[in-house]
Every structure is written in C-alpha cells, then in structure tokens.
TrEMBL record:
Keywords: c-di-GMP, Membrane, Transmembrane, Transmembrane helix. This is cyclic-guanylate-specific phosphodiesterase. The chain crosses the membrane at residues 6-24, 31-52, 64-85, 92-111, 131-152, 164-187, 207-224. Residues 402-534 form the GGDEF domain. The keyword Transferase does not apply. SMART domains: EAL, GGDEF, PAS. Residues 543-797 form the EAL domain. Its EC number is 3.1.4.52. The lineage of its organism: Bacteria, Pseudomonadati, Pseudomonadota, Gammaproteobacteria, Oceanospirillales. InterPro entries: Biofilm_reg_signaling (IPR052155), EAL_dom (IPR001633), EAL_sf (IPR035919), GGDEF_dom (IPR000160), Nucleotide_cyclase (IPR029787), PAS (IPR000014), PAS-like_dom_sf (IPR035965), Rev_trsase/Diguanyl_cyclase (IPR043128). The keyword Transcription regulation does not apply. It comes from Gynuella sunshinyii YC6258. It holds the Pfam family EAL. One of its GO terms (molecular function) is cyclic-guanylate-specific phosphodiesterase activity. It is an enzyme of class 3 (hydrolase).
Length: 800
C-alpha cells in the first residue's frame, strides 16, 4: 500500500512539474485546468476509497487530492511570482464547490429515479452531500491559502537568507496541511472527546501527507532557484488588488501604461544623463543628455567603466549584485578627453532573481564643484585681499615645531579712510597693502582683521633681524596710495611681535602675545614696532581692569540690549530684529562689543552676558506683544562658549517659561565654526531647540567653513550672509556671483536668507533681483536703544 500511496503522490506532482516547463500563457491555462480537476475530483473521490499506509494511518482519496491541490497552488504562485493568482484560485475554489454541490445533488436525484438506467448499479448514497460541509471545506482552503501567503509575505520582510526562508516556507506549508486535519472536525462536529480522538488518530496521516507533498516544493527551490529568488525579491503584494473587480484592474493597467509613457518621456527629455547597461556594464541605451555630456553623436558601443574614473569599480559591482542602489561622485571622461565631475546614481534591475541591467543617471556637477572649491578657499582666505585669514593663521600656528616669529601689522587710522572715502576705497587700500607686503618675498602673510595683517617668519628670528624686517614692512607702506577717486593718502603701521620658544611656552601663545605687543605699540606711538616682553605688566593690568569693570557692569546693570531692525527685501517692512549687547559705562560712555566680547569669552563671563541678553530680549518681546505692537522675530546671538559649556536648551526653556515669550518668535544665531567644530555635541541641542519651536540661524556665513553641503546636516532655518560679501556689490563681479550662489543654494536647502551690512540702495536693489528674503544694515537703521526701536516699529508713534 505504501507503493500505491507513493504512486498517487508522484502522479499528482509530475503533472504540476510538467506545467512548470510550459510557455507562459499555456502554463497558466494548464495550471488553472489542473486545479479545477483536482477540486472536482476531490469532491467525489474522498468518500469512494482510502489507502491504508499502516495500521494507524489511513488516507482517503480526498485527502490526497487536497494535498495535491495545496502543493500545486504553491508551485503555481512561486513559478509565476504573482500573488494575483491567489485571487483567481479563490474564485476557482468557490465555483468548483458550487459545481460539486449542484452536481452531487443532481446525480443523487437522478439515481433515485425509478426509470433511470444505472448500468453499474451505483448507489445514490455517496452523492448525498452536506452543503455546510462543502462550504466549510472551501472556506478552510481559502483561509489556509491566505494564511500561507500572508505569513510568507511577513517572513520575507525579516529573513534575508534565502535557504532559511525556503525552509521556513516549506515548514509553514507542512503546518498548514496538518492544521487542516484539526480545524475541519473541530468546526464541523465541535470539541468533544470523540472528535479529539479522531484528530489525534488522523494526525500521523496528515503529517505524512504534508511531508510527501512538500518534497516537490524542496525540489522546486533546488532546480528552479532563480524563479524562487525572483518571487522573494518582488515588491510587497498590494492586497487591495484582491478585492478589485476586472474594471478596476483594467484601470490599474491603464495607470501603469501612463506611468510607462511618462517614464519614456522623462528618459528622452531629462537634463540628466541616463544610460542603461547590461549586467557587465556594456552600454545598451542612452538618452540625448548622456550623449551630449559625453560628446558622442550616437550610442557608443563601449563599456561604461571605460569612461568612468575615480570609482572603486569592484566594490560598486559587488554592492549592485547584492541588490543595493548607489549614489556616488565620479569623473566622466568625454569623447574628446575632457573630464567632467558628476553625481552618479546606479540601480540594478533583476529578472527571475538574475541581475540583467543597470540604470545609471549622471548629473554634471562641475559648476557645483567650482563653487565648493571657491567656498573652501574663502573659508580660509580673506575675500578682499585673498590672503589666508585668521582661521588659517590659528590652524598654522598649531603645527609650529621650530623657532618662529609672529608679527602683527595694524594699519594706523585706517578707519578714517573708510569713513572719509567709503568702504570700496578702503578695500582698494587693503588690496594694495597686501600686494606690497607680498612683494617682500619672505614669510607667510595673513589678513586677520579689518585693518590687521600678520606674517609668520621661521628664519632670521633674532631681534635684530626682526627689527630689520619690521623696517622693511613699514618702508613698503611709505609710498603714497592713489585711490581710484584720485585721492592720495598715506598709511603707516604699528607692529607687534612675539617669538617661539624664546618668549612663549607654546605656539598657541604667539597670537596672544603678539596682540599684547601690538596693543603696547599703538599705546606707545603709532607707526612703531614692539617686541613682546614679560614685563608688559601694564597691558595685562589693563586687561584685568577691563575684566573687573565688566564684572561690575554685569552686577550693576550697565549692559543693555540694542536692536537692529531686519526688513523684508521686497517691501521694506520691519519683520524682525537682532538683539545686540551694549556696555553703557557711567564714566567711559558706550563701549563697543569688540572691546569686551572676546574677553568675556576668555573669562567665561559670556555665559552671564548671553543669559542677560536672552532674558531682556524675551521680556521686551512679551511687553511689545502686550502693547499690540507688530509681531517680530527676535534674534539673539549664541557664542561658541555657550554651546560648549552652558546647558543652552534648559536655559532657553527656563527663560521662555519665566518671561512668557512665545518660542516661535525667537531665533538663535550661531557661527559656522561654533557648529562644525563640535558637531556631535551641537546637533542634539539644535534639534531640541527646534522642537520647542525656536528658529536656528547660521551667522556670518562665508567667514567660516562656508560649506552648504556640510551645513545641510544641521537642523537650520536661516542663513545670514556676512557683510563682507556685500561690500563689493554691485561693482565687484566675484562678490555678485558668490552672493547669488549662496542665495540660490540656500533657497534650494529651504533656508531663509538674511543679508547683513546692507548700506546702499544699490546693494538692496541687487538683493531684490536675487530674491533674498530679509536684510539688515545701516541703510535702514543702525542698532537702536529700546525706546528708539519701539518708536520705529510703533505705527502710532510713527504717525505722531
């Protein structure tokens, strides 16, 4: 009997396996016809015969046909990699059950009629069927198929190993077959001792049946592995298709056709170069943009890698074979040998689990690269003179290991040039000064401030050589400076010098000591030279006095907040203001921030000053709202010290709670260097502040790293263009192009753009053309005391 049982299983499996080898359309028809036959035969053979496998195992013909049906459906779905088949199978089960029921009733009725010719004396009893049992059997089959499919869909989301996934699926198939032997009697007859005994007695037979019909599934995974991999790699099934009618499916197909047409149009007309290659990267198709980018007149019969450089090709190929899409920078060599920087996106395409094509898109980023190089240059160079800037000097100092002298050169009374002739003329003097200093051909020159230059000397650093060099510097500045407006001016310079290791223990002290020496030189006599010495106690004493005075100012309320309005570029309306700290000393009057902010950061007093400014700003903002003054976005500067040493989030949350100011009307400004030097510490603080509703602005953009590509990693809302970019507008071509680039890229990153230091109508008109959002500067108003600012924004006072 075992051989007879095996013959049944092999017979049912052979037909299903034969259908796997047929062409597509014939294969589908054959499978549906075979499944129909199994369903109809199962309705009658189940009660006609059974096969005794052993003393305790008896399998009916209906059980064999049920196992064959479940095995065939599973093979059909795996082979076609199309779960919509399940919808048709469910419909087939319903129709077949209805047909079986009607046919059984008809045959029972016919065989019961006296005049019927019954050649083989077939009794009518076997055709007395229960509609409830037929419905139950059909429902269970449908539920089992759905459970099998849904569970496997869930499994393939979380199991990536193909062999383990195949094992789990076959194990799941066995479990479903065994569960059928439990569910049907329980539902049909209810739970009782007799039913449980039947279930237990039938369980070995169900396990044998499930295991037997799982063998074809094992063989399918082994011999048709590509089809199985295609099935597990297909997109998640859209279960909504199960309830759609034919009309809806036709609409879905029409929609997909439209998408295909749109994709074709995009391919032909896209500005991005798109190329389709085979699995070995041989070019098979390309759009016009790719041909234009590479300089070919027609589709080149070449391998893509022959024109792609600066890419780890083996690593890329391996990742693509594993199904990963990649985006990377690459260099494309055009037909005439011209290299082009591109952003390359590559996606693999699979058919039946086999890699067949790659689709690659190429975007020319030559312009972006040039801009990035320019911004990188400007991050460490002065815009006006193109000399390395203070940041570059500080970085260079940290690398010093040998005898080195640092000389700081300050142009005396240079502010008078700007005030008398304007900043463009002042820039002209700075550029010519840089050229004269570079003509000395010794040392590395930097521009470290508005009117300050510095030079590092690593040879001839003895005192006499430094005196001689300082004299050469001053001699270079003796000739008259002739300005473009025909004015003639004379410039002298004060010089401060320090030496390492003779005068300072670490290279980092060079800049501090040279600053002290320069201060001493300016205090002693303009146009003089001073070498730092340890006995410069007066300078240190003054610094200490300034620190004490600053502490007293904090204690007695001599620090206050001024506001500089920020205006809409298009209509000039005041939309916000930047809060700026001012020191009103009872004896010395107004002390500018440049005289005490650095000292405050060095001594830690900036923490108290920062909290004071934030609190006063929020208090005034709340007061203005209570007076029904226009709602303004108020910006407060945050120092690098606060980001590093102060719990900025807690402090801000506490001040907002105590003052009642609305977080959405507060903006905190930080410099680029403060953000990037401690990125991992800063980002969580910025995220927390934004979650409170506070806006985050990047201040003085262009004076630091100047990397928009890097800044996009930070949660920012506003980008403030440094005033140095606007100084040359509209006359300076580079300034115009850089400003236009920053505004365009900033808007692409969804930043609000604020231009600082707008002083002329021409600058404002230029910003209007570029679509800049907001500006601030002396063209509208200098920073104002609170009462003056309130008068500026109060409509009633304006009318009065």
């Amino acid at each position: 009997m075992v051989a007879l049982y095996i013959a049944h299983v092999v017979l049912y499996a052979l037909f299903a396996w034969y259908f796997l080898r047929l062409p597509n359309a014939i294969r589908e028809v054959s499978f549906y016809g075979y499944l129909t036959a199994l369903l109809i035969l199962g309705g009658f053979l189940g009660s006609i015969y059974s096969i005794p496998i052993s003393e305790h195992i008896l399998l009916s013909g209906g059980n064999l046909l049920y196992g064959a049906f479940m095995m065939t459906v599973t093979l059909f779905v795996l082979a076609e990699a199309n779960l919509i088949i399940l919808k048709h199978v469910i419909r087939l089960v319903i129709i077949a059950d209805l047909f079986n029921f009607l046919l059984a009733r008809l045959m029972n009725f016919s065989l019961s009629q006296p005049g019927i010719v019954n050649t083989f004396n077939v009794p009518a009893g076997p055709f007395e069927v229960s509609a409830a049992f037929i419905v139950l059997g059909g429902v269970l089959i449908i539920l089992e198929l759905l459970f099998l499919t849904i569970t496997f869909e869930w499994l393939r989301k979380y199991i990536r190993q193909k062999n383990i996934l195949a094992f789990c699926y076959i194990l799941l198939f066995i479990g479903v077959i065994c569960a059928d032997g439990t569910l049907f009697p329980l539902i049909a007859f209810g739970p009782n001792a007799e039913v449980l005994q039947i279930i237990i007695g039938n369980l070995p037979g169900k396990i044998l049946l499930a295991s037997s019909f799982s063998v074809p599934l094992y063989l399918f995974v082994i011999f048709y592995r590509e089809r199985f991999e295609r099935y597990i790699h297909q997109a998640p099934f859209e279960w909504s298709l199960m309830i759609q009618n034919s009309g809806q499916l036709m609409q879905e197909m029409a929609h997909h056709k439209r998408l295909q047409q749109q994709s074709s149009a995009f391919f032909e007309h896209s500005s991005e170069g798109i190329v389709v290659t085979d699995a070995n990267f041989e070019i098979k198709d390309a759009n016009p943009a790719f041909l234009q980018m590479t300089g070919y007149q027609q589709l080149p019969q070449i391998n893509l890698w022959t024109i792609v450089t600066q890419v780890e090709k083996e690593s890329v190929s391996k990742q693509l074979q594993n199904g990963h899409s990649l985006q990377l920078e690459a260099c494309i060599i055009s037909r005439d040998g011209t290299p082009r920087s591109t952003m390359m996106s590559i996606s693999p395409l699979f058919e039946q689990g086999r890699l067949v094509n790659h689709v690659t898109s190429l975007v020319n980023i030559d312009d972006l690269k040039n801009i990035q190089q320019r911004l990188a240059f400007l991050a460490e160079h002065d815009v006006t003179t193109e000399l390395p800037n203070r940041r570059a000097l500080e970085q260079t100092i940290t690398t010093i290991t040998t005898d080195t002298a640092l000389m700081i050169v300050d142009l005396d009374h240079f502010k008078d040039v700007n005030d008398s002739y304007g900043h463009p003329m002042g820039d002209h003097v700075l550029v010519e000064t840089a050229q004269r200093l570079l003509a000395i051909n010794e040392g590395q020159w930097f521009r470290i401030g508005g009117d300050e230059f510095a030079v590092l000397l690593d040879t001839n650093t003895n005192t006499q050589s430094l005196l001689t060099y300082a004299g050469t510097v001053q001699q270079q500045l003796v000739p008259v400076f002739e300005l473009p407006n025909h004015a003639r001016i004379h410039i002298s310079a004060s010089i401060g010098v320090s030496r390492y290791p003779q005068l300072c223990k670490t290279p980092e002290q060079l800049l501090q000591q040279a600053d002290v020496a320069l201060y001493q030189a300016k205090q002693t006599k303009r146009g003089s030279f001073t070498l730092y010495s340890q006995d410069m106690s007066e300078t240190l004493k003054q610094r200490l006095e300034m620190e004490n005075a600053l502490r007293d100012a904090l204690q007695h309320g001599h620090l206050t907040v001024y506001f500089q309005p920020q205006c809409n570029v298009q209509n000039g309306h005041v939309t916000g203001a930047e809060a700026l700290v001012r020191w009103l000393d009872p004896d010395k009057g107004l002390i500018p921030p440049s005289d005490f902010i650095r000292l405050a950061e060095e001594t830690g007093l900036i923490e108290q000053i920062g909290e004071l400014v934030l609190r006063q700003t929020c208090e005034l903002g709340t007061e203005w709202r209570a007076r029904n003054l226009p709602a303004l976005k108020l910006s407060v500067n945050i120092s690098p010290y606060q980001l590093r040493f102060v719990n900025l989030v807690d402090m801000t949350r506490r001040i907002l709670a105590e003052t009642g100011f609305t977080a959405e009307w507060l903006e905190l400004e930080m410099t680029e260097s403060a953000l990037m030097e401690r990125e991992q510490e800063v980002i969580p603080q910025l995220v927390a502040l934004q979650e409170m509703g506070i806006s985050i602005a990047i201040d003085d953009f262009g004076t630091g790293y100047s990397s928009l590509a890097y800044l996009k990693n930070f949660p920012l809302d506003t980008l403030k263009i440094d005033r140095s970019f606007l100084e040359g507008i509209p006359a300076n071509r580079d300034s115009r192009q850089l400003t236009q680039t920053i505004i365009s890229l900033g808007h692409n990153l969804n930043y609000k753009i604020v231009a600082e230091g707008v002083e002329t109508q021409a600058q404002l008109d230029f910003l209007k053309q570029l679509g800049c959002d907001t500006y601030q500067g002396y063209l509208k108003s200098p920073p104002l005391p609170v009462q003056a600012f309130m008068k500026l924004i109060d409509p009633q006072q304006q009318r009065a």
